[in-house]
Design brief:
Layout: E1 3-4, E2 6-9, H1 25-38, E3 42-46, H2 52-64, E4 83-89, H3 92-102, E5 108-115, H4 118-125, H5 129-146, E6 150-155, H6 162-175, E7 179-184, H7 191-204, E8 212-217, H8 224-233, E9 238-241, H9 255-264, E10 271-272, H10 280-291, H11 312-320, H12 348-357, H13 367-383, H14 390-404, E11 444-452, E12 460-467, E13 472-479, H15 484-496, E14 500-509, E15 518-526, E16 547-553, H16 556-572, H17 583-586
Parallel strand pairs: 1-10, 2-3, 2-9, 3-4, 4-5, 5-6, 6-7, 7-8, 8-9
Antiparallel strand pairs: 11-12, 12-13, 14-15, 15-16
């Protein structure tokens, strides 16, 4: 029997250090729920001491996700709740704050780190090697007095002196560390170097057999996955990964790449995993949509081209036998190849079955979200000639999630009125289907929009928004020099009275054809700083919170407006208590 490989997911901590990525609390909780369903063993939920908002996010994950067993039971599954982990520097305040954030989870861990390379000790920490070992002894001991499960990471281990590193790790074990994580912080090592480092440390660290050895590799030279697997081959039994490989600079080791390497080569590595691989693609899409970090088309495992064959020779082989050119079955990672085509005559049962097939079964969608998605699906099916594709379905789910994840510290899933009882196989919508979602759950809603544009014409837009706070429709118009989107966004700002900076705008098609569904994702921030009226407020941490919005429509102009309004609604409902620290303040290198 092979050893269990512990999948330590750091998407919500190290992954969120990707330039331009700031997840709000609801987004972090939603991703954590999906990671728990996926079957990861450990979720590093964040860096609690960074700000009150970061603390609240980690605490909510500990309380709301820490005890969840959905998707985690049965043969080949982990059969235990996920471990919720909080990161802490080797500072007393960090460690106590991390414990307070995670302690409500049934299984929790404190992850303590301190640099051990001479360059870091001399120029950053300005301490000697002996002082480094003493700080490790003191801070790991403090963490152990609060929590049984302690992980220690020697920052920049890949460039540390091996003999001293083994001494420092021996101190950590003696102080109570249960996991020793060896980071290649700057992605410098080759697989041969990194594998031999793990082997050397396991042979020369006192108490090495008492702890779990872990890898944490960065992708600066494109070797993160290879280095992690070299670590596994040499005795590591935990890998630190991020969905889609997102993270600082060139990113982290990709979760899906590690899992599918082990999955595809069961005899090459002395380990097995308990991940539900059929949720990999839907998890990847969720992280892509909420983080705004697009997955490259040729990305291994989850890229859109991962299972496409252009070469005629390849196509001929695949048609005769898929194994000629496919080493992984697409359905094993959640890329469907079924024959269930959805169209305007499809009912709720077929729609639900397709969602489950795509990885959105169980409680992935609430009843309210399912209803919203079904309404959008019927609208889309009526407008498309070729039927609704899997890409369309993924986009619809992303749209619904974007409109129902609020920024006020609680899930903003809209209340849904009681719908008329219909057969599960009914293909008809109730007459009031489009009115079932209570508009009062969102501050602003798009009522009407008219856009006038063309070559040699100054674009103008007239927009009517429903303001739930005032209980009335508000209409205004604006013109712009740079196209209809600028005109629409300008008039929305005029109506709402908000000064908004557009940080990112992305439009993509979910399938082929002129009637394909368009998906628009935006990220915005307010140009008006919040008043520094409380500790932990916006200006106290030198950052403006950023808000994402996503919407779909066959009309990309309409999708652009709704994506902007979705982000705006999250901005106006934002609770200052959930303000996150700046990207700089919550970024730590491990």
């Amino acid at each position: 029997m092979t050893d269990k490989l512990i999948i330590f997911d750091t998407t919500l901590r190290d992954g969120e250090q990707s330039p331009g990525v700031t997840l709000n609390t609801d987004e972090k909780v939603e991703i954590a729920r999906q990671l728990a369903r996926l079957g990861v063993d450990v979720i590093e939920a964040g860096f609690p001491v960074a700000s009150p908002g970061d603390f609240n996010a980690v605490q909510r994950i500990a309380r709301e996700v820490g005890s969840s067993m959905e998707g985690r039971t049965g043969e080949g599954r982990v059969n235990e709740p996920v471990i919720i982990c909080g990161l802490a520097r080797s500072v007393e305040k960090d460690i106590r704050t991390a414990f307070d954030a995670i302690k409500d989870a049934p299984r929790h861990r404190i992850h303590v780190f301190l640099a051990t390379s001479d360059i870091h000790l001399e120029f950053k920490l300005k301490i000697s090697r002996e002082q480094c070992k003493e700080r490790i002894r003191e801070m790991v001991g403090l963490a152990k007095s609060l929590c049984a499960d302690i992980e220690f990471s020697p920052e920049d281990a890949g460039r540390s002196d091996r003999e001293f590193l083994a001494e420092a790790l021996s101190v950590a074990v003696a102080a109570g560390a249960t996991t020793l994580n060896i980071p290649d912080t700057v992605g410098y090592n080759t697989p041969l170097e990194y594998g031999s480092l793990i082997k050397y440390l396991r042979e020369h660290t006192q108490g090495a057999e008492q702890v779990v050895w872990s890898t944490h590799c960065h992708n600066d030279l494109g070797l993160a996955t290879a280095n992690s697997l070299a670590g596994v081959t040499n005795g590591a039994r935990q890998v630190e990964v991020a969905v889609n490989g997102i993270g600082e600079r060139a990113g982290n080791t990709a979760l899906e790449e590690i899992v599918m390497n082990v999955h595809t080569h069961p005899h090459a590595y002395p380990v097995h995993h308990t991940i539900n691989t059929r949720l990999l693609f839907s998890t990847s899409r969720m992280v892509e949509d909420l983080s705004g970090m697009a997955v490259q088309a040729n990305k291994a495992i989850v890229g859109r081209n991962a299972f496409l064959h252009e070469s005629g020779i390849h196509q001929d082989g695949v048609l005769k036998n898929k194994q000629t050119y496919e080493i992984i079955r697409p359905e094993d990672v959640g890329v469907t190849t079924g024959n269930l085509a959805l169209g305007k005559h499809s009912g709720r049962h077929a729609f639900k079955t397709k969602l489950e097939e795509l990885g959105y079964g169980g409680s992935a969608l609430s009843d309210a979200q399912f209803q919203q998605a079904f309404v959008k699906f019927k609208d889309l099916a009526d407008s498309k000639k070729a039927g609704v594709t899997d890409g369309d379905m993924h986009a619809l789910v992303a749209d619904v999630r974007s409109s129902t994840l609020g920024g006020n510290g609680t899930s903003a899933t809209p209340e849904v009125s009681a719908a008329p009882v219909t057969s599960p196989t009914s293909t008809e919508l109730p007459e009031d289907a489009h009115d079932l979602v209570d508009p009062a759950t969102q501050r602003f809603a798009l009522r009407h929009m008219q856009v006038f544009t063309g070559v040699g014409i100054t674009p103008t837009a007239t927009v009517t928004l429903y303001d739930a706070q005032r209980g009335e429709d508000l209409t205004d118009a604006a013109l712009a020099k740079n196209g209809p989107i600028e005109a629409i966004y300008s008039v929305i700002q005029r109506i709402t009275g908000l000064d908004i900076e557009l940080l990112n705008f992305n439009v993509s098609a979910t399938s082929e054809g002129q009637d394909t569904l368009g998906k628009v994702a935006v990220r915005i921030a307010s140009r008006t700083p919040s008043p520094p009226d409380a500790e932990g407020s916006l200006t106290a941490y030198g950052a403006q919170p950023k808000f994402t919005g996503l919407a779909t429509d066959v009309d990309i102009i309409t999708a652009s407006a709704n994506a902007y309004i979705s982000a705006l609604n999250r901005m106006v409902s934002h609770d200052s208590a959930d303000t996150r620290a700046s990207h700089k303040d919550r970024s730590v290198n491990i």
